[in-house]
Amino acid sequence: MAQSLFEKLWSHHAIADLGDGAALVLIDRIFLHERTGGIALTSLEEAARTPFAPRQAFCTMDHVVDTLPGRSDRTLMPTGTQFIQTTREAARKAGITVFDLGDERQGIVHVISPEQGIVLPGLTLVCPDSHTCTQGAFGALAWGIGSSEAEHGLATSTLRVVKPKAMRVNISGVLAPGVTAKDLALHILAKHSSMGARGHAVEYAGGAVRALDIEARMTLCNMATEFSAFTAMIAPDDAVFEYIKGRPFSPKGAAWDDAVTHWRTLRSDDDAIFDAEIGVDASEVSPMVTWGTNPQQAMPIDGRVPAFEAVSGQGQRASHDRALGYMDLAPGTALEGLKIDAAFIGSCTNSRIADLRRAARLLAGRKVAPGIKAICVPGSTAVKRQAEAEGLADIFRSAGFEWRESGCSMCFFAGGESFGYRERVVTSTNRNFESRQGPETRSHLASPETVAASAIAGCLADPRKLVRS
Amino acid sequence: MSLKPFTTLDAVAVPFLRPDVDTDTIMPSREMKHVSKTGLADGLFAGLRYRQMGGRDPNPDFVLNDPRYAGAEVLLGGANFGCGSSREHAVWGLAEYGFRAILAPSFNPIFYANCTRNGILPVVVSQEIIEAIALAVAAAPRQNLVHIDLQAQTLKGPGGTSASFPIAREVRDMLLYGLDMIGLTLQRREEIEAFRAADREKRPWAYL
Questions:
Q1: CB A24 to CB B192 under 8 A?
Q2: Is the ipTM of this complex over 0.95?
Q3: What's the first-to-final CA gap in chain B, in angstroms?
Q4: B35:A439 CB<8 A
Q5: Best exposed site among A106, A157, A424, B64 by fewest CB in 10 Å?
Q6: Measured between CB atoms, which of B35, B37, B86 is closest to A82?
Q7: Which residue segment(s) compose the domain that A429 sits in?
């Protein structure tokens, strides 16, 4: 019978049918970080249990570590040290590889997992982090879980999972110059809502997806959690194999050849049936920016803040009004030209070398507008080194950006460093929730290009105009 | 670790019907202060519950501070409840505060799973029914209780509202009997090891 990519991945890992749609699923890789992984490890230890397959589990320090130069276990977040040290100690006892502070391999989990060749096509990978779907870009079944499930995964190398339905998002057409995977992700959310993929594992397919480079595919898959998807995935192709080849944990020699043979079968059969399918035309996508407090509240940069009546299928008037009140915006206000206080490039969505290269291209020879706080946080130590070697770091610094150590940084406010009270921030991150980046901060999600262009202009700006000038 | 079984519940319900309530709202990151599953009830909904960020002076406008709803064990929520971060601290905080069930038209999948692993029953029920219950509850919260029977998968609200709700048998049994799922899975150790051994022949590259 014809199978979808998701069906194939699921059937390769289903150990036992648990009845009523649930299965015991083999887990090939577990990734942890200090924010939610430490508690899984200490809880495991308290129950006098040990990891089933410690060599297949990994841990990084990314969430509450400082990103200022000269960092240590001490953190600006008041109790961050406890998270770092408890996690490190528990991971060491459990025999798990740790990508610690000071390790050249350290970085944001969803950036370093591919860098290290830990995620591979055809694997199941879980992490107590909602953006684990990012790694579906490699043709893995990778999804976010809670800490209790992470403990279960560590103890048993399995999870008990109620099988989601399968959805395909067919993306045809070509993205216009200056339009990116981030804009595509926000476009899909704006059009199909933050609940559009509820209950489904999503496969992104079509010519426009094939045309994306690997890092752009990660950006697209990253925001599947904002789409309420169980996860997202893209069928692996030669570009993926090339990206993975020779990485520290990827297979070598004959094992590599065997793997590639297997990986080439990981695509939806031509007549595979999906529970749901939607079509998206990439050529319709513009640079996008959010105007509200939910990622679905996004518009083209040359658009205006919508009135409630103009937004179809997006819940209640009260929440629309609340979002506008919080953001201090009125319907009809042009997004382009909206004065900002700060600009942030970073996070598991957009902090990879390709993101930094594209932003740097706009920043070269230009300056951040006076009074704008601009920060760039590379997604991994390796990305940081690469960017420094390519001269990108100098471009960021000359333009007036702070150049940081890698980590999740100011994607969220954990009680330490943050943007200021009610500051308006244009940000390459994934969540514009109330107070996400600081006390009552107003976050506008956008691509790294749009963040760079806006930082220069001092207001929300269209990166395409900067390219033309 | 075994959990308190969930069989039936008759409880005060508190309405918080806003859609897209994210886990940052339920448990702000700044309130996750320790590597612990406890000590989180104080931080629950902190951004709404207190007058000032970091403070503990109650905001009288927030529904959890309304004394009529004191002791509520059921939370009436909006669509896409628990979206955003996977942080289980949101659920630990809800459980520690005393919530045993959440009614919503839809849940974020990770949040839903986190609830079930901590003895909180997530009940998927239509917006109309939730609104009807919320209306009836508001008239007299302490009298107009919500009744839930997990075995029967039924819900009865004040004012004659009733509904049945779906839940996978696996998840229902976990809650119903307060099962230690890790212990249960480890009973299948031999089956898991046999599967891995056979799989290793097929996918040697997947094993480190």
A1: yes
A2: yes
A3: 30
A4: no
A5: B64
A6: B35
A7: 288-468
